[in-house]
């Protein structure tokens, strides 16, 4: 199955307790499609960059088999820029700068070659753009996955609620789920989100793992305990990318398959945080991926007699 990815393609400047970067490659769609390529799943990006976006980064994406026909280049425009600074515990961060630039007036176009994508992953971007992409698909994809953030709850509530209503799976972090529903209990929050539309609700809890709610069942996974976390940027996008790509590979959207997809998403996110930006994702090998998923299995497998 093919995966169509909508989301930012960006420059990020990141500061963590371990160091600082100038403008480096970032963006939700970048993390998602790089993760799909590691899983050998065909993906295509719908997004926009400016004339300042380096050819070498475009080449890197195409070399990995990512379809960038839907990545518009506005020659006289500037690429979306985000800058953030992490606190010492790496669990929270402050956004220092968001320059929307070419994303401000972005009108997404879906290339003919991606119209038959069975899975649509609406990565972090203005909910109006996410809606417009869904409307421009000639046939509704078999599965629509939405990733969002608190920024859109504060600035585009109505459109956000509308796109949530058209979504099959939502991935959202714990604080955002609370903000969206006004419920502190994540179980109650997930129930309210189900009522808004999505049949499956995934609540991400950073270094504490993730929860999957659906079919009246709950599944929980931890995050892989890592000795060193270098830069958490993109962990959520990588998680969503791994999750979606695994479902595309298995061509199955059952709760059971989603449980495995959650593990794959978490394993992929554990790579993303090991280096700045997308550096680690660009070098992950198939065998490293298999080993990490195995580590995950061992971490979570146990037998108990009562
Ligand atoms: P995450 O750490 O998973 O929240 O994702 C970080 C990525 O999201 C960075 O690479 C940023 O470029 C991108 N990003 C940050 N803010 C926004 C925004 N308002 N719209 C779209 N992408 C964003």
TrEMBL record:
Name of protein: Sugar or nucleoside kinase, ribokinase family
GO molecular function: kinase activity
Any single Gene Ontology cellular-component annotation: cytosol
Keywords carried by this UniProt record: Kinase, Transferase
Gene3D superfamilies per the UniProt record, alphabetical: 3.40.1190.20
Domain of life assignment: Bacteria
Regions annotated as coiled coil: none
Transferase listed as a keyword: yes
Domain Carbohydrate kinase PfkB, residue spans: 3-279
